[in-house]
Amino acid sequence: MAVEPLSQKEIEDRLTELPGWSLDGDRLARAYRLDSHFAATALVVHIARIQDELDHHSDLTLGYHTVTLTVNTHSVGGAVTRLDFELARRVEDIAPGHGAH
């Protein structure tokens, strides 16, 4: 299936299903605050595994007790696509205290 940029309306509609995620310019963005730096580091490792499984990678920043992601699809000129939402959903599902466990 070809990857196409999503319209502004499609992005807004999909964001309603991902609390905490937002559109930051031309990228989906989310920050997680965790109980410890170790927990944040572990989350980064799990996100990296998901990104490799999807062959779709975000900018991922590890801070003190925080993990920040921003993502768009470079192959369509840096637009937001279904791939970005698939990555966001998978991350949300494994984030402590945020997704289904």
Detailed description of the structure:
- The protein has 101 residues and is of the alpha+beta class.
- It contains 3 helices and 4 strands; from the N terminus they run αββαββα.
- The chain has a 4-stranded antiparallel β-sheet with strand order 1-2-4-3.
- Strand 1 and strand 2 (27-33) form a beta hairpin.
- Helix 2 packs antiparallel against helix 3 (82-94).
- The longest helix is centred in the middle third of the chain and has 18 residues, at 37-54.
- The chain starts with 7 loop residues before the first helix and ends in a 7-residue tail after the last helix.
- The model has no long low-confidence stretch (mean pLDDT 94).
Order of strands, main sheet, comes to: 1-2-4-3
Terminus-to-terminus distance:
30 Å
Question: Compute the gyration radius: what is it?
Answer: 13 Å
Helix count? 3
Mean pLDDT, as a whole number?
94
Q: From the structure provided, what is the oligomeric state, counting identical versus distinct chains? A: single chain
Global morphology: globular
Quantity of strands, as a count: 4
Biggest sheet record: 4 strands, antiparallel
Helix share, percent: 25-40%
Indicate the proportion of strand residues.
15-25%
Order of helices and strands: HEEHEEH
User: Unreliable segments (pLDDT under 50, ≥5 consecutive)?
Assistant: none
- Structural class, judged by helices and strands? alpha+beta
